[in-house]
Amino acid sequence: MPTLTVNGRKVTVGDDVYILEACRAAGVEVPTLCNFDGLEPWGGCRLCVVDMSLEKWDDDWFKLVTACNHPVEEGMTVVTDSERVLATRRVVLDLLLARCPDTPLIQRLAAELGVDETSYEKNPEHTDCILCGLCTRVCDHIGVSAIASTDRGWGREIAPPFNEPPPDCIGCLACAEVCPTDHIPFATSNVKRTIWGKDFEMLRDPKTGEAVITKAQAEHFAERSGVPMTYFETSDKSKRLEVAKTFEKLQVVK
Amino acid sequence: MKMIYKVSVERCIACGKCELACAFAHGSEGRPSKSRINIHRRGPELGTPVVCFQCDDAACVTVCPTHALVRNEETAAIDMVRSRCISCRMCVAGCPFGNMLWDEAYNCVQKCDLCGGEPRCVPFCPTGAIAWVPIEEAVLPPEPLDRESLEAVP
Prior knowledge:
The structure holds 2 protein chains of 2 kinds. Chain A is of the alpha+beta class. Chain A is built from 7 helices and 10 strands. Chain A folds into 2 domains: 3-81, Ubiquitin-like (UB roll), CATH 3.10.20.740; 134-243, no CATH class. Helix content of chain A is 28%, strand content 15%. In chain A, the strands form 3 sheets. A 5-stranded mixed β-sheet of chain A has the order 2-1-5-3-4, with helices on both faces. A 3-stranded antiparallel β-sheet of chain A has the order 8-9-10, with no helix packed on it. A two-stranded antiparallel ribbon of chain A has the order 6-7. In chain A, helix 2 packs antiparallel against helix 3. Chain A is globular. Chain B has a single domain, classed as Alpha-Beta Plaits (2-Layer Sandwich). Chain B starts with a strand and ends in a 20-residue tail after the last strand. Chains A and B meet through helix 5, helix 6 and helix 7 of A and strand 2, strand 3, helix 2 and helix 3 of B.
């Protein structure tokens, strides 16, 4: 259980955690865009940079690292609000603000660090995508990999293969739900779900017609987790009714 | 002392107080339709409360792709780690008892977490149909409710 110092405050954390978690344990907030607790850290957005020093280093020697994917060590010193750290974050947000000038989340984060206007030329094409990679990572994580980042440089974007409806997509909406800027459009109802230009048939309850997942989603997860397909076939409401009916038989009414 | 959440379906009078207590305790704006305990009403003063069983080998935990559902060793409840949830709704579809609830208003999954070891619905139950009891007491068969002697509330 390593003990480290975050902004002058001592904190003891578990062995396999990263600096970001230690900062949160110490009550210090570090801004992030591409970090998500359910996924492996990636270090893509560079917003969570912190100054870090080890005991064996010279006293005034600090190194800039991304907090989300740098493991903690015993006796580590972390500074999250040094001028160097803040200046680095301002550059990151300045660039993001140039790419997405109309995105509320970026505007808010930038304003918090005193960047009201970007110093670069604004992107003439409107986009809310900050290329944080959360959508592609979550898609990989659930074992589908239907979308990926395509092209390089300024033409880079998140898209399905050949910009056509992705054949592997199961319509789980995880990409749209984790997107920090709500950039991925989708439509869902009890009958049909549409995302990435692909239509999905919903797995409807035979009695009530309600649906929360698509058929493709149920098939994928039944195969992956070993939970029988029959578990998914009825809605939660119908299943509660079944449970209630089972217990009714126990009910002794005087 | 290890405590357990005990439901005695024999004693439920379908008053709905547990649903209200739950809806208020968990910020569902007091909407009983979105509470984590649901009473199946099947007659006057006759109901069956349905609430999460906190299964040993739980389907919701098995299907969750991001390990957002974890067992709390202290309360023995399966807790939801919201920051890990990707809202894929597989747990809602996978629970064989229908106790994972999708809340459209908040775009999240609602799940009974036993209120961290102090279920808020229990003190409101007038007949003791739901109780938070030491684990040894839970195996005793419940006493049937003497419905004749119940007094009508004016």
